[in-house]
Amino acid sequence: MRLVLLGAPGVGKGVQGYLISKEYDIPKISTGDILRQEISENTRLGRKAINFIEKGELVPDEVINKIVEARLKKDDCKKGFLLDGYPRTIPQAEFLLNFLSDEGLKLDAVLNIKLDDSTITNRLSNRRICSKCGKDFNLAVNPPPEDGICPVCGGKIYQREDDRIEVIEERLKVYRSNTKPLVDFFREKGKLFEVDGNGSISEVHKNFVSIINKIKDDI
Ligand SMILES: [Zn+2]
Question: Could you tell me if 2 and 58 are in contact, meaning their C-beta atoms sit under 8 angstroms apart?
């Protein structure tokens, strides 16, 4: 399966991506992870990327595309992949489809996790994170210990600035306006599948599995 995963902040994209990659035995590819790795290994691409990041600029499409292309050419992608955080723009999406078609392959589906803004705001504003190991807690369903100390590593648990309600609303607005053209682009190509993001992690995972299995049957 060759998949792209889309979803606003707070819909559980990270964990669902992880579960899908395990279920279908395909690598989960996040451009953020690759960029961090290239930078830490000080590769040519990493040095190119850091030039933009240090200036506070977005890494341009052509650099991101090169990184993705190199990653998708690796052996473990022969059985498929799940892209997370890419493509983010129409030119990136066009690059991906062209690259795959040049390789005689095609993208099977773009999975978009749907969740309404009030549910997302609720989830994110309840989120608390360990400052040391990154473990996350939720005031409603998985509250941190009262002393505010992480039971895993002893780090301090805090609320990210990003997870304050005013910031969340702005992040969602930005996400929706950036992603809408991409969603429309893939819908027009008949690649878009919407997945209901309501429910527990395992319920949402089941929604994914039933949709992916149906797509698989049609291939
Ligand atoms: Zn911790």
Answer: no
* Ligand 1: centre distance to CA 136 (Å): 9
Give the domain CATH number at 183: 3.40.50.300
Region for residue 42 given its phi and psi (left: phi exceeds 0; alpha: psi -120 to 50; beta: otherwise): left
Structural domain count, the chain: 1
pTM for the model stands at 0.84
Q: For residues 173-191, b (16+ Cβ closer than 10 Å) or e, as one string? A: eebeeeeeebeebbeeeeb
CB atoms within 10 A of CB 163: 21
Distance (Å) from CA 146 to ligand 1 centroid = 14
Determine which helix (DSSP H) or strand (DSSP E) holds 157, and give its type and residue range.
strand 157-158
Task: Dump pLDDT digits (tens) for 134-158.
Answer: 898 999 889 999 999 999 999 999 9
Q: How many angstroms separate the CA atoms of 25 and 68, rounded?
A: 19
